[in-house]
Design a protein that fits this description.
The complex is a heterodimer of chains A (260) and B (706).
Chain A (H helix, E strand, L loop, with lengths): L1 E5 L2 E3 L20 E3 L1 H17 L3 E7 L4 H11 L3 E5 L9 H12 L6 E4 L11 H9 L3 E11 L2 E8 L2 E8 L2 E5 L11 H8 L3 E4 L1 H4 L34 H14 L4
Parallel strand pairs in A: 1-4, 1-6, 4-5, 5-11, 6-10, 7-10
Antiparallel strand pairs in A: 2-3, 7-8, 8-9
Helix pairs in contact in A: 2-5, 3-4
Chain B lengths: L13 H25 L11 H13 L8 H25 L3 H6 L6 H31 L8 H28 L6 H10 L4 H25 L7 H10 L31 H9 L5 H5 L1 H4 L6 H16 L9 H7 L8 H5 L9 H6 L5 H5 L7 H14 L6 H12 L24 H6 L8 E4 L2 H5 L1 H16 L4 E2 L10 H5 L3 H17 L4 E4 L2 H10 L8 E4 H10 L8 H4 L5 E5 L3 H7 L3 H8 L4 E4 L28 H11 L4 E4 L2 H16 L6 E4 H7 L15
Parallel strand pairs in B: 1-2, 1-3, 3-4, 5-6, 5-7, 7-8
Classes of the chains: A alpha/beta (260), B mainly alpha (706).
Chain lengths: 260, 706
């Protein structure tokens, strides 16, 4: 099975996140890493490939031209190759532009299954995957807690507010991964070394046949109005009492907040 | 033909019997060596540091200082060892047709040989008493560290048999043929034996004499297959012991794509590692000292080393005892036999050491410290971790976050760099960063760089230690600076967890930073930072003078740059009893035992009480070797056990000199207090000192630390 995983280089959230004066993320200020939720999607893809004993896992990304360094980290986890769409005209793209570009790129990569993370830690719209599905006509299976491909179709257990929905769609299809699929692996040094020689193909908008004026910041349909720091978290309360007393206090604490 | 043995029937048969056994011994030993050839060629050179290596040989092999850590067992072993060695003179005489006696008899008209006989008789009794105690110990006392094995008992029986038959043979010889000059015990024993009649005593003599030499031959043949092989290997193992700092893990070349990273199979071990295996005496001192083993975890350092030997012996099964000579090989087109390929390729994990046990190790080095024949367990366990992490990415799930945090945020907790200087807020003096001083062109003013470390920078409890230590430095008028946001994790936890890739990345970054500012003199309160900067950064060409804060503070006190309040000022209040918990990486790895105690003793009204396991025999808090970032799911908690030991002293305060020890002891004490123990607190030595500093000469009152 040929799996394509959508990955995005994002500013590292373990550092300090900084916004520029234009309220867009100042990417130069922090190191770039693979978006955490995309790593879950990649992990799921790698597990599917391992279970099948054959197939390929290909990365697809739209990002600035510094992205290959970050994509190597995803390749180190075990992906086979990567495609990067990079073009100065893409700066400031909104979710719609991104979906259009990625949908076009997807048309040039053989695939049976497309996996995407739930959302990205920088933009956070969580709509790109749905946009791609809409533009390409791929079946869209979201919030997957379990992915079971079966020859020509795929079954997905979708997390719902009350439990699970069982979805099934013919392949090719697009599945949005969740963290319930399992922790991403930590790349081994062997994997890091192997990643050095893996191929990353870079496409410009021209390569994809897209007119630069139809995408990017100038035609963005969304606008950032305001950005503010999240409220500081309240102090943690640590109960240091013998177990029976601690249990009573814990119950009281939870009941007060109507949590149990 | 052999006048010395005229009374022994069929004496010349000794030669084929004994020398045949020597040949078998040689062949088995040679086969052991051929397994060494299958290992990595790396190992210490016999020609480096010869005086130091030789001195160690005297100390550990001849005087056996490490053995005496267990006094009774040490004395017993000393008796058996030296008795056995010196009694060899008699055996050597027998197997050389009396050559030894002939030579020794030359001076002083045979008096010297008489003296040898006196000594032999005395030694024989000493060995027999020691052997009897050894049997008693194995069968009746049964210390937990000893595995009851047929092999151990057989060896004791053989040694006892060799010595006993020799002494009795002499007694019957004296009874049959008259007193032997010098052999006073045998002569005394002969007196009652004479009543048996000459025929009986002569027969008994012949049987016992031959039994003696038969046991000697059997011992030689059995020796290379048994744990008693250590009499042949221990001297080499001691001579070739690790002489680099004990806290320096082997360097790794991560660019070599063809290499196996870390230790996967027997073939990845160096020859010294295999020698360790063949040297293990199974005495179990490592096991008894191991905090993981003591708290019911699968790790048993003894079983690991024995496992390496067992795997090596398995591999030997492919090799014929008698190698085909090149002539035979040419004539018959034979290849020489090779070590069993499957045994050589078998993984060490779950072969020599269970997977879980690999991760139980706190790298505290108690096993290495305890081993009388200087086996190095820890470097090998980290070697196995290296293979699991770098090749297979196989490790406890909790470590992923620690690795990623170190890699991305430069600290294991994933805290933002900007918070690194938060601990300085509210101090009544300014703690400058190196970058600030460099910008003002005042780099030269820095007397010492205070390497804060991640724990003191981010952990609320340890920040208080940093404030106390900085207060001491300020009170002593030391011009110090910190790196602030430019400081990064030293990489020590990553290295101990087997992730040398992350260690090299972080260490290289730190070396670059330190060298950019040309900083050479460093003080740190973290033993782990101290050890890796001081003992390991040299592998990346970073050379610094690092001093641990316990040593630094002791020096400031000794030089009079710091003064504590007089005992008079404290008044008649009851002394505060304090027990000091030694950090493994200070006491055991870096010999810092006296200095932190000297700091404590400078504090008026403080009474120091020692735990049973202190100094170089300290018991780990449970956080070393990256265990700080792993869940402790197997067995009981190590910090709870150490807390129990601390509480046993009755002290009201547990003093530490390590941020990890602080966290572990504090957690342990909190749990103990929740379970009803009295109020006992964990306090760093710098805090105790800062709280009792005398006002500085200017009369300025020192601030109270919050």
């Amino acid at each position: 099975m040929r799996i394509v995983v959508l990955v995005k280089p994002v500013p590292d959230t373990t550092g300090q996140e900084r916004l520029g004066p234009d309220l867009r993320v100042d990417r130069a200020a922090s190191p770039t890493v693979v978006n955490a939720n995309d790593e879950y999607a990649l992990e799921a893809a790698l597990k599917l490939r391992e279970a099948a004993g054959e197939g390929s896992v290909t990365l697809l990304s739209m990002a600035p031209d510094t992205a290959p360094d970050t994509l190597r980290k995803a390749l180190a986890m075990g992906a086979d190759a990567g495609y990067l769409v990079s073009d100065p005209a893409l700066a400031g793209s909104d979710a719609l532009s991104t979906a259009r570009v990625l949908a076009a790129a997807l048309g040039r990569i053989d695939h049976d299954l497309v996996l995407a993370g739930a959302d990205t830690s920088d933009g956070g719209s969580g709509t790109v995957a749905a946009g791609i599905a809409a533009l390409t006509g791929l079946p869209y299976l979201s919030y997957a807690a379990k992915i079971e491909p079966d020859g020509a179709s795929v079954r997905v257990r979708r997390i719902s507010p009350t439990g699970y929905d069982l979805l099934e769609a013919p392949l090719p299809a697009l599945v949005v991964a969740t963290q319930a699929l399992g922790e991403p692996r930590y790349p081994s040094l062997r994997g890091i070394m192997a990643a050095r020689s893996k191929s990353i193909v870079t496409w410009s908008l021209a390569d994809l046949g897209i007119d630069g004026s139809t995408v990017g910041g100038t035609v963005a349909t969304t606008r950032v109005l305001r950005a503010e720091a999240p409220p500081a978290r309240a102090a943690t309360r640590v109960i240091r009492e013998p177990a029976p007393v601690a249990a009573a206090q814990l119950v009281e604490f939870l009941v007060e907040r109507r949590l149990i | 033909m052999f006048p010395a043995f005229a009374e022994v029937p069929a004496y010349p048969l000794v030669f084929p019997l004994f020398w045949g056994a020597v040949v078998v011994f040689g062949l088995v030993m040679a086969r052991h060596l051929r397994i060494f050839a299958a290992a990595r060629a790396e190992g210490p050179s016999p020609f480096s540091q010869v005086p130091r290596r030789t001195a160690g040989l005297v100390r550990y092999a001849l005087v056996q200082t490490k053995m005496f850590k267990d006094r009774r067992a040490g004395l017993m072993h000393f008796g058996i060892f030296w008795g056995f060695v010196l009694l060899t003179i008699g055996t050597a005489n027998i197997v050389t047709g009396g050559l030894v006696e002939a030579i020794i008899s030359v001076p002083f008209d045979g008096l010297l040989w008489t003296a040898v006989s006196v000594m032999q008789n005395v030694l024989a009794v000493i060995v027999l008493v020691a052997i009897a105690y050894a049997f008693f110990r194995r069968l009746v006392i049964k210390p937990a560290r000893l595995t009851l094995s047929a092999s151990g008992l057989l060896i004791l029986a053989m040694i006892g048999g060799v010595v006993g038959t020799e002494l009795l043979a002499q007694a019957f010889q004296a009874a049959s043929y008259g007193d032997i000059p010098g052999a006073f015990i045998a002569n005394a024993l002969a007196v009652p034996l004479r009543s048996l009649g000459t025929q009986a005593t002569e027969t008994a003599f012949a049987v016992l004499w031959w039994a003696h030499i038969a046991i000697v031959a059997a011992f030689l043949v059995y020796l290379p297959y048994s744990k008693h092989l250590h009499i042949a290997t221990a001297p080499f193992n001691i001579y070739f012991r690790k002489l680099t700092p004990r806290g320096e893990l082997p360097a790794m070349d991560l660019e070599d794509e063809t290499a196996t990273f870390g230790l996967r199979t027997l073939q990845d071990l160096g020859w010294k590692d295999l020698l360790d295996g063949f040297t293990c005496t199974e005495c179990g001192r490592c096991q008894a000292a191991c905090p993981a083993n003591a708290t019911g975890k699968p790790l048993n350092p003894k079983a690991f080393i024995m496992g390496i030997r067992e795997m090596a012996v398995d591999a030997e099964h492919g090799i014929d005892l008698i190698p085909n000579s090149p002539i035979v090989r040419d004539a018959y087109g034979l290849e020489d036999t090779q070590p069993a390929a499957t045994a050589l390729a078998a993984p060490l994990v779950d072969g020599a050491i269970p997977y879980d046990a690999v991760w139980d190790c706190v790298t505290c080095g108690a096993c290495v410290e305890a081993c009388p024949v200087l086996i190095e367990h820890v470097d090998k366990i980290v070697g196995v971790r290296r293979n699991l992490v770098l090749e297979d990415s196989r490790f406890p799930a909790e470590l992923t976050a620690a690795f990623t945090n170190m890699e991305r945020a430069g600290n294991p907790w994933g805290q933002p760099k900007s918070a690194r200087t938060d601990w300085t807020k509210g101090l009544p003096f300014v703690v400058p960063t190196v970058a600030e001083l460099a910008a003002q062109g005042r780099l030269d003013e820095i007397e010492v760089l205070y390497w804060v470390g991640c724990a003191a920078a981010f952990d609320e409890r340890n920040r208080r230690v940093a404030r106390s230590f900085a207060t001491c430095l300020d009170a002593a008028g030391i011009r110090f600076a910190i790196l602030g946001q430019e400081e990064s994790c030293t990489g020590d936890p990553a290295r101990r967890m087997g992730n040398d890739y992350v260690w090299q990345m972080l260490a290289a970054e730190n070396v670059a930073t330190l060298d950019r500012y040309k900083l050479k003199s460093i003080v740190t309160a973290c033993p782990h930072c101290f050890n890796t900067i001081g003992n390991e950064y040299g592998q990346l060409d970073g050379h610094y003078e690092v001093v641990h804060h316990s040593v630094y503070l002791q020096r400031l006190l000794a030089e009079g740059r710091l003064r504590t309040i007089d005992a008079d000022a404290v008044g008649d209040t009851a002394p505060r009893t304090v027990t000091f918990h030694d950090s493994c990486y200070m006491a055991r790895y870096n010999d810092v035992v006296a200095q932190p105690r000297a700091v404590l003793e400078s504090v008026a009204g403080l009474e120091l009480v020692e735990m049973e396991r202190s100094g170089k025999n300290s018991f780990c808090c449970g956080a070393g070797g990256g265990r700080m970032w792993m869940e402790e799911t197997r067995g009981t908690r190590i910090n709870a056990e150490r807390t129990r030991q601390a509480l046993e002293t009755g002290a009201g305060t547990v003093a530490t000199n390590c941020p990890f020890c602080m966290t572990m002891m504090r957690d342990g004490l909190d749990s103990a207090m929740a379970d009803g123990a009295g109020t006992v607190s964990a306090v760093d030595i710098a805090e105790l000192l800062a709280d009792s500093l005398a006002p500085t000469p200017s009369g300025r009152q020192l601030p109270v630390i919050q």
